[in-house]
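Field reference: "sequence" (input) and "structure" (output). Example, Cyclin-G2:
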Amino acid sequence: MKDLGTENLAGGEGVQLLGLLSFYLEQEQRFQPREKGLSLIEATPENDNTLCSRLRNAKVEDLRSLANFFGSCTETFVLAVNILDRFLALMKVKPKHLSCIGVCCFLLAAGIVEEECNIPCVHDVIRISQCKCTASDIKRMEKIISEKLHYELEATTALNFLHLYHTIVLCHTSERKDILSLDKLEAQLKACHCRLVFSKAKPSILALCLLNLEVETLKSVELLETLLHVKKHSKINDTEFFYWRELVSKCLAEYSSPECCKPDLKKLVWIVSRRTAQNLHNSYYSVPELPTIPEGGCLDESESEDSCEDMSCGEESLSSSPPCDQECTFFFDFKVAQTLCFPS
């Protein structure tokens, strides 16, 4: 196995990869949440007036759902979590403000990462998240978050390291290029981000732990040797590495267990009050005038139901004008849910 030194990577691409790795390593500490602030949140008991780790973790789950709902990329979610944790580790936040802060972190991250055409509308995010704040509230809170973080919102995250490590490993292996699923690794990273403790880990270490555990399941000696060289080049000591590797392993084991609820890819049922339903834009519950016509012949009953996206129930509920204390149910044909799905 060749060393990852520059002299063995004179082919241009290797030099660029190592240069980028060195840059990420220099930047990672700058964008890490303050450990003292995170520890304070962890130590806070649950009550109505203080922010605890359970509320933070629940908010990150909401961010993941928002990212899935609007089709945002993993980078948007990871950056939103980074912005959220950096802000929470600096400021004393009351639980009642957490929803507004979470939405702002998502919008700030989307504005940095996503193409302009893919950035969600503020009003749409407010409606879907049901954060009970106005567009003006969002604008003011975005200003506060940006100022407290000195307008340094674009950060070096564990996802940056994960993608880079993945590229380096594949450049130095004779194995099939599809042997390491980046989608699966990203899903596992999302699982870790849903727990506050992993915000204390250096992004370089967290990413390497995920990749190391996945390579071990593949039982590839060549890939493992490459990772050892990456670990050495990143100057990651064994004590830190094995400490976080154990925590990551436990986290992934819990997410993979039968006790952990996972989405079954059925249609997501969104239940809202009548008042909320009346405030929704028409496009959220409109039904296409004509169902999709298949090319190969007659439309059976099951295909007919799917073609209308199961949204007729929502229309009936609206037209029947239920009492205020009843709820209207809307069905959306989404392949996402509140829980994590590991790619097969």
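The chain has a mean pLDDT of 79.
The chain has three domains: 6-27+156-256, 32-148, 268-332.
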